[in-house]
Amino acid sequence: MTISITLLVDDGAPVNVMFFHDPPYPHQLLLPNSLVRDFARLCDQFGVRGKFSVLPMPCCLGDINGTLNHVPGRHLQGFLKIVRERIAPRFDITPEILTHLAAYRMEKGGFHHLYEDEWIARATVEEMTDYIALALEILEDVGLPASGVTSPWSTGDRNEEQYARAIAAAQWRVHKRNVAWYFLHSFADGPAQHPTVTCRIPETSQVVVSIPATTRDVFWNTQRPAACTLREARAAANAGVESLLSANGRRGRIPELIGQGCPITILTHWQSLFSDGTYAGLWGLEKLLARLHKQYGGVLEWTPCSQLAAASSRNA
Questions:
Q1: Residue ranges making up the domain that contains 174
Q2: For a disulfide at 50, which of 7, 66, 181, 190, Cβ 3.0-4.6 Å?
Q3: How many CB atoms lie within 10 A of CB 129?
Q4: Each residue of 147-204: pLDDT tens digit?
């Protein structure tokens, strides 16, 4: 028996999206590139594979294929270089749409007074296609071709079939991909869900697959305001590890998912690993990976999302 397991990392960027998403609390704007190197080292050590998002226009600061306001060019290029060389060989890359903040104005430039999830809920398939294609093109331009799409917040949940068709059309336009996939849903408790085919596009023979997370982000509370000291952040990380897999391997969400015969798709966020400079989330991830290796050894099969999507498209 093999156990399929995948790590989903949201919000990858040279900046901390919490600086913009959570303004009442102090969050550092720039995320050090040492975080990227340390994460890559950890994934190399344990053979981790999965999905890593890169924001094409992080928080409306500019394009990563050009310049970003308040981000030194050397810092941006260092981030992209490490992602290309150390993370992309193991992880599927996705845009998290364009900005993960206000929606970009495609025709006029600038930004709408709507967040992306609200704009997508009102957009036509053609408008969504152009928007998603631009995200894919920006990543292609920096040497990070994307096999899937990650939804910021609940983007697409109110018009999911149209959203899925737009993802397929954008992937066909930019990459001619027969299998398109996206991450939108999470099943953190109770019965989980396997990757599912959302729609088929007869004109291009495409299949679109929804790949859900089957855990919550157990390292989220390593950030402010939940944790303001290293001690608090590590306590939160340790509690998160325990909730996924106890030391004796008998309790936690992961044994539950194995019992359900469901792929394990572990969700976390780039800022959750940084933990406002304590790196407690990354410390917790290392502890979890060591525990997984000890408990399950050679039966773990780390799997990128594109592989899960391809298998689902064949079996549906």
A1: 3-315
A2: 7
A3: 21
A4: 999 999 999 999 999 999 999 999 999 999 999 999 999 999 999 999 999 999 999 9
* Count of other CB atoms within 10 angstroms of residue 126: 10
| DSSP-H helix ranges across the chain | 18-21, 33-46, 73-82, 116-122, 125-141, 160-175, 230-244, 253-260, 270-274, 280-296, 305-315
pLDDT of res. 316: 65
Asked if residues 156 and 208 have their Cβ atoms less than 8 Å apart, the reply is no
What are the CA-CA distances from residue 263 to residues 10, 69, 85, 185 (Å)?
Answer: 18, 40, 27, 14
The pairing of strands 148-150 and 111-115 is unpaired
pTM of the model: 0.98
Q: Are 195 and 212 in contact (CB under 8 A)?
A: yes
- Write the CA distances from 73 to 68, 78, 127, 209, 299, integer angstroms: 8, 8, 31, 36, 43
* Nearest one of 123, 127, 192, 120 to 151, comparing CA atoms: 120
CA distances from 288 to 99, 199, 249, 285 (A): 31, 35, 11, 5
Chain-centre distance of CA 49, in angstroms?
12
SS3 170: helix
285, exposed or middle or buried, with CB in 10 Å at 0-12, 13-18, 19+? buried
Could you give the number of structural domains in the chain? Answer: 1
Would you say how long the chain is, in residues? 316
In whole angstroms, give the CA distance from residue 92 to residue 180: 12
Task: In whole angstroms, give the CA distance from residue 40 to residue 46.
Answer: 10
Residue with tokens 């709507």: 114
Going from the C-alpha of 10 to that of each of 250, 273, 315, the distances in angstroms are: 28, 11, 27
- 287, 34 Cβ separation under 8 angstroms: no
